[in-house]
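[recover] target loaded
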């Protein structure tokens, strides 16, 4: 079973909000997921991550989608700059 870390759309029409989820690659975009590991609000460009759980899933072989990979990279850059 291939596991991916990807965005699942929530919110209403024209007011998008995304959950960052760990899901089987065969699941629908907004469908079933294994675990919620963060959120992304594009209107405020606000990202909240559970870094420990994301790291655990990456170690287990989960592949981030291209968009999630960019979000993770940007958050890591912000964390390094503030440290």
């Amino acid at each position: 079973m291939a596991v991916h870390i990807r965005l699942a759309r929530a919110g209403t029409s024209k007011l998008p909000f995304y959950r960052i989820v760990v899901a089987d690659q065969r699941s629908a975009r907004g469908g079933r997921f294994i675990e919620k590991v963060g959120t992304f609000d594009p209107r405020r460009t606000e990202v909240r991550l559970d870094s420990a759980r994301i790291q655990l899933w990456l170690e287990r072989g989960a592949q981030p989608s291209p968009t999630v990979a960019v979000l993770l990279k940007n958050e890591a850059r912000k964390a390094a700059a503030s440290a």
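[recover] notes: Residues 66-82 form the longest helix (17 residues).
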